[in-house]
Amino acid sequence: MSLQQNPTRQLERRLGDWMRARLPHLVSELVMFTLKQGWAALFGALLLVGMILSSKIWQPDWPIVRYDALLAYALTLQFLFLATGMESWREARVILLFHLTGTVMEIFKVHVGSWGYPGEGLIKLW
Asked: Which of the four pLDDT bands, split at 50, 70 and 90, describes residue 1?
């Protein structure tokens, strides 16, 4: 995807150009670095918010268990990131490889008894 097709990169470029024109070089670089780090952490931060909120409000009699709802929330976030162009399909493929690796490691850890799931869920491996 080229710079002209990616709205996130266009926004980053315009913001960076605006800051470099108005702020000292080191300040503009620090601000842009901070914004990029925040952008990179957005998915994790939103997932953490979902985990905290669900731990506070979740009721055992709700029709879906909390961990399955969190998985649905994470998949919805991922879909929205892809649909809005906040994340590219190339980035999603790399993330998928990490998740596949992590899943294999998780299956092993559950099998040997060093990890267990703290709550109920329909979508559990072993």
From this structure: very low
